Amino acid sequence: MVEKTYWAVNSLTGRRELQLFPAVGGWRSKINGVDNGSTYDILVRDRVTPVTTAAWATALEPWAMRLVAEWDGRVKYAGWILGHDWDSRTGRVRIKHADFRAIAARRALFGVGPMDLPDIVIENRSLRGLMGEYAWKALVDGAYRWALRVTIDPADRLEPGPYTERIPRYRVDSAENLWRDIQDRENGPEMHFYPRWSPTDGALEDVLRIGTPTLTTNSIDLIDAPKTPLIGFGYTLDGEKQRTGVFGMAQGRGDDGKIGVAGIFDPDVGDGPLIPFLDAKHDISDTTDQDVANSKAREILKSLRKPIKQYRFQIADEALSAQAENGTRVNVYYQGDEMQPPGWINGRVIASSHKVGDRFLGLEIQ
């Protein structure tokens, strides 16, 4: 059985401060975003070894501490402690926590100081390079209490490309908003921070991985489904972003810029359901070539032609479940369901979660 351990960890040093024993609650982590609604109810009064009031105050200090869920020595989740609620009747304290990217909404690319300095200019980078440079400036490039224990591959951060960005200081853009701007662009890469115990000093750190543009890690192939069943199966079918036609509007389009067009009668778009026409404009990179503009619009329409189907389930095998993480590709044969026809489900973990008492990770597949 996989041993699950929980810790309060100092966010600046990465050192474990106190082992925690949750009674109920859980966590959720997703690619390209933050889940802010997670809580744990922690046992205070029923501990075998009592903890002093001062030690509890230290261990639960918002932002100074992170809540870590560890499976057989591997960090599965490390969220920021945002606050807590103490109830003396139950002897439990409810901790509110959020995934790593919560801090990015509270940091610009520079700290509080003089504002009459030059704008920040990042030249000749790919979209991946811009994303990595934003992370470096907002989370690493600074002194104590600014520089977090974050690892960013220099090859990602310095990846060359055609993009030059000027960030006016007066806008005070948060790193989160700058990342989302990149992610929303054509071929905008995905990103995620993966927590781990450092191989160098054993303390907690986070490793930034940037997709190309999709972020993938390992693979889990469940060929013999009866021996590896899925439990808690469900899905969501979402047609809100569905389109039958796209007008590709170039970003910063000049007089010579072209508007790309793509519709369902284009043979390269592919088949889709018979629905009323749903047309909308979408951003594409600037181009003066009509064929290029049409091609960019066509690629967008391909991704929006059908509704998005997102699966959720648990893999009822502790060893395999423990291998899963955000970005894992999962291939599984599923049958015997009233709403889902039998067949292979091939997708990628875009979010993972866990609740106290569950043996397996909750996976969201798309």
Describe the structure.
This protein is mainly beta and 366 residues long. Helices cover 15% and strands 39% of the residues. The chain contains six helices and 21 strands. Strands 1, 2, 3, 4, 5, 6, 7, 13, 14, 18, 19, 20 and 21 form a 13-stranded mixed β-sheet that branches. The mean pLDDT is 92.
Please describe the topology of this protein.
Blueprint: E1 4-10, E2 16-20, E3 22-30, E4 38-43, H1 53-59, E5 65-71, E6 74-87, E7 92-98, E8 120-125, H2 127-139, E9 150-151, H3 154-157, E10 163-167, H4 175-183, E11 191-197, E12 204-210, E13 219-222, E14 230-238, E15 245-250, E16 260-263, E17 279-284, H5 290-304, E18 308-315, H6 318-323, E19 329-334, E20 343-355, E21 362-365
Parallel strand pairs: 9-12, 13-19, 15-17
Antiparallel strand pairs: 1-2, 1-5, 3-4, 3-20, 4-7, 5-6, 6-7, 8-10, 11-12, 14-18, 15-16, 18-21, 19-20, 20-21
Helix pairs in contact: 2-4
The rounded Rg comes to 23 Å
Helix count from the secondary structure assignment:
6
Largest sheet: 13 strands, mixed
Main structural class: mainly beta
Overall 3D form: globular
Helix content: 10-25%
Q: Compute the number of strand runs.
A: 21
Distance between the termini: 28 Å
Q: Which regions contain 5 or more consecutive residues with pLDDT less than 50?
A: none
How many discrete structural domains? 4
Beta-strand fraction estimate: 35-45%
The topology string of helices and strands comes to EEEEHEEEEHEHEHEEEEEEEHEHEEE
Mean pLDDT: 92
What tags apply to this protein structure?
366 residues; mainly beta; three-stranded mixed beta sheet; 6 helices; 21 strands; globular
